[in-house]
Structures are given as C-alpha cells and as structure tokens.
Specification:
30% strand; 33 strands; 7 helices; mainly beta; 7-stranded mixed β-sheet
C-alpha cells in the first residue's frame, strides 16, 4: 500500500490488486474515518477526499492503514441483489475476443453467461459500472485504436472488466453485444442500475435490440415570461456549486468553472452564494427582460443595458434593475473566458441529483440555452444586496499565467528530466478546450508505454496521454481516467484555470518535489 498526494484535501491509496482495493473500500465503509467525505474506488486504488479544513496527510494515511483488512484474501462478500441483463451477442469485436480467449464465438458467449459478474466500482460516465468476475480468461486488452462512437447499451470487455456504455460515447473496449436495459435513468431512484456490489447475470435476449440513449437531458423550466435569450455566440449553461455525493453512481461534481465569480454575482443581488446562475462563455450575448428583474454580472465580460432612453453601462459585480422590454448586451471579453449572470431570487430550474448544474460530459442537468430559450424567475427569498466586489485580473490570449501544482499522484511515472521539462516549459492553451478540460500544446512529455489501470481523478488533474500533450481537467472531467496524472492544480488556482482563453500560456510551479505520503502518528483532534 502506498499513499500518493493529489491535493491538500485529497490523496490516492495505491493497492496491489482489485480484491484488496475492494476489501479496504468496504472496511472504510464499515468503519469510516472521521472527516472523510468521499471515497472513489478504482481498479487498484482508492481516491479519498476530506472535508474543509482537514488535511489529506500522514495522519489520515495512518488511520486508513489501521483499517486495512488482515491477510490477502478477497473482499468479504456483501449482500447484494442479482440482476439479469438480456444481451444480443452481435458486437463488432466478438470474433477478435474469441481469438484472444482461444475459444469459438459460441464458447465466448457461453462463458460470458455462465460466470457471475459483480460491480466493483463506477466511473467514466454516470451509470458506467466496472464489473469483474473470477474467470481469468476475460482479462483482455483494450483495442489498439479507440472508437470515436460507441452506441448506448453496448456490452464490452477490457482488462478483466465488463462494462455497458450508458450513453453514446468514444471508447476503447472490445464490443461483444448490446442490451436495451438502460444503465442510467433519472426517473429511477437511484438512477444508476448497477452500483458497487450489484451482481449481474447475462442472459440471451429475444429479438433485435436497438438501444436508445440512456441519459436524458432535462431542460430548464421554460416560463412564459422571464429572461429570454435573443442571441448568443455560444450556448449558455446553468451552473451552481455542483453535484455533491454522487460519485458512487459515476457522477462527478461539475458546477461553475469560476466559483468566485458565481459567488460575487449572487452576493450582489442578495442570493445565497451557491444559487444557480447563467454561465456565459465569451460572447456576444443579447438578453431580453420580459418582466422587471434585478440581476448582477461578474467574471470576464462587460455589459450594457439597452432601454427606451438609451444605453447604460453595467458596473461589474453590482446589482442593476431591468424593466420589462429592457435588453442586456454582453460583449466578448478582452480577457478571460466566462461570466456569471445572477438573478435576484434565482432562476426556476429543476435540480437533478441535488444540483441545477449542467454537466456537459455526463449530459446531466438543464439543456444548454440558445436563442429563444426563456428562464422564469423562481422568486426565492433574498437578502440585502452587497456592495460591488472587485474580481481578479484575468488573462488574455498571449498572457503568461503561473499555476501552482502539487506533483503527483503519478509523477514517479516520469523521469526527473521529464518532470523538470514539464515545470520549465510554457504550455499554450489550445482551442480544443472545454468544460471537461484544457488541452495544452508544447514539447511533449514522454514516458514508457506502460498502461495505468483506471483510477480516480480530481478537477485540476493534469493527465499525460500517449501524445505527451497535457490535458488539464476542469469541472466536467470524467470521474476515473486511465492516463497518469503528473500533477494536480492547487484548489485556489481552479477559478483562474476556468478563465484561460485559447492562446494563453501556462507555466506550472511546484513548491515541493514529489514524495509519497508517509503514515504518521500524531494528535489530529
């Protein structure tokens, strides 16, 4: 067992194999460590997060170590229901799987149905369950070239796991069939059909299956009157502080990329800091007030109010009133990427899994807003408006930004030379960036060709794929990933990362060399 640094409140517990990973996971569930808020199990690791003000340090590592089950046997069986899933075995890789297993296609199908599969953990996408079994013949490699599109409902194998894609997505697993049973359904409680511990038996399906997308996109509540989008260069998203406590279903936090700007806008109109607001990317945007409204804008952009008597500039971070028929014009910012428009009393948006945020990777939450969309006011109680709060200076294209990082958890997958190269280089933000992550360009960071089993990732994680070009994860990142994370942004740098425009340059700065966390005894009271 090793303890690897991820962030001030997050560490990775590296384990020798899946059985001992799950045994420790269940031990920590049975005997929780105080102030641990989240545990994300994966193939050979647990990612552990702590609550505010609680460090993920040697004292925490000691408490985890004390709960390690004795011996090297598999995890203690837990009561779990068994689900039968009907499958049509018509996958594109079925012949290849048969060759890899040294079986005929009918023998592969029979073996897949004969074994009992059990969900080890969830990740990659909401409702995507990593199922494992005792048959070693199912330890299969991924495809050498991933597919760009895999249909929802596809049943696939890779690396000792069986998985079912809950929605259409890219992927590199071997496809053997499909099922029409949705893995993710927001009308179900809980939405994920398969959760850690659930057992699965695959049975033959009758007839041809045409699986539909398993993840709906619930739209924001559209009112007859409210704030109407007249025109926008990019879709507008609803965002709050994110979706807490859903990692067991494979759902990450999401939420506003610049949470400081979201809080400032909400305080300006007397809302609670985490009230859902509109996240506006670049611009220009034109909005029409169909009712008298009080709003505030914070973040990157400037705005003007257009009314019958002319135009009035909006002071950033200050509440302003609109009469019915007034318009707001928000220009593309000279620096930064995102702005937040808050409405006093909030917008009428139905929460999904406890949050109104739109997760663009998982397709959870309100649909993006385009021209013609209308959001009605919710009219929730609000307090006194706050005086204007100035925001930080934001970077423009070409600017150099230094972002503080903690090296790890997989910095030791890279040579000392490559670590120095990673920290010394100026990386350029590319246009191939999104709320999922920022793709960077520069001289590549190289390593050997070893494969990393899937493990938990944090917002701010910097993955190094085979290309050597880093990807900096933002709020809509996948819950688990299969490329080594060389470093992770410090939490205080995440807001700034969410404002980096294409063309900006980044230099990463680490204040300490990489070192595993050493369990230690000390008073943590």
């Amino acid at each position: 067992m090793r303890f690897l640094p991820v962030g001030p409140r997050c560490l990775l517990v590296e384990m020798p194999d899946l059985d001992r990973t799950l045994a420790l996971f269940r031990a920590l569930e049975d005997d929780p460590v105080a102030d641990v808020t989240d545990i994300i199990p994966a193939a050979r690791s647990l990612m552990i997060r702590t609550g505010p003000g609680v460090a993920a340090d040697g004292a925490l590592a000691r408490q985890i170590l004390q709960r390690q089950p004795a011996g090297t046997t598999g995890p203690t069986p837990i009561p779990a229901k068994t689900i039968e899933l009907p499958v049509i075995y018509d996958g594109e890789d079925l012949d290849q799987v048969a060759r890899l297993m040294g079986l005929s296609v009918p023998e592969v199908i029979a073996a897949h149905q004969a074994t009992e599969w059990q969900t080890a953990f969830c990740g990659f996408a909401p409702g995507f369950a990593y199922m494992t079994c005792a048959d070693p013949r199912f330890d299969l490699p991924r495809r050498p070239v991933p597919r760009t599109r895999i249909p929802a409902g596809s049943v696939a194998l890779a690396g000792r796991f069986c998985g079912i894609y809950p929605q259409e997505s890219p992927g590199g697993w071997q496809l053997i069939g499909c099922t029409e049973v949705p893995m993710w359904d927001l009308a179900r409680d809980p939405p994920a059909l398969l959760r850690p511990g659930t057992r699965v038996r695959f049975v033959p399906a009758q007839g041809r299956i045409h699986p539909a997308a398993a993840v709906p996109e619930p739209a924001a509540t559209l009112g007859a009157r409210g704030l109407r989008v007249v025109a926008t260069a990019f879709p507008i998203l609803v965002q709050d502080l994110g979706r807490v406590g859903q990692t067991g279903q494979g759902v990450s936090l999401s939420g506003a990329l610049d949470q400081g700007a979201l809080r400032r806008a909400n305080r300006a109109v007397g809302n609670r800091p985490g009230e859902a607001a509109l996240e506006i990317t670049l611009g220009p945007v034109r909005l029409l007030a169909e009712l008298p409204l009080t709003l505030a804008l914070a973040g990157a952009a400037q705005a003007v109010v257009v009314h019958s008597e002319g135009r009035d500039p909006v002071v950033p971070g200050t509440a302003f009133a609109l009469d019915a028929g007034d318009e707001i014009l928000i220009d593309a910012p000279a620096a930064g990427m995102r702005s937040y428009l808050a409405l006093r009393g909030g917008f009428q948006v139905p929460p999904v899994l406890g949050s109104a945020s739109t997760d663009t990777l998982a397709h959870i939450g309100p649909a993006p807003l385009d021209a013609g969309s209308v959001l009605a006011p919710a009219g929730r109680p609000a307090g006194a408006v706050h005086p204007p709060e100035g925001g930080p200076d934001l970077p423009a294209a070409g600017d150099l930004v230094t972002l503080p990082v903690i090296l790890g958890p997989r910095a030791d997958w890279f040579s000392d030379k490559m670590l120095r190269h990673f920290l010394a280089q100026e990386w350029q933000v590319t246009a191939q960036s999104s709320r999922v992550g920022i793709r960077l360009a520069g001289d590549p960071v190289t390593r050997d060709a070893a494969e990393l089993p899937s493990e938990g990732t944090e917002a701010g994680a910097i993955q190094i794929p085979h290309s050597g070009q880093p990807v900096l994860f933002l709020a809509d990142h996948p819950l688990t990933g299969g490329y080594p994370v060389i470093a992770t942004l410090r939490p205080e740098a995440l807001d700034l990362a969410g404002q980096l425009p294409p063309g900006a340059r980044i230099r990463f700065a680490a204040d300490a060399p990489f070192a595993p966390i050493v369990p230690e005894d000390r008073d943590v009271s």
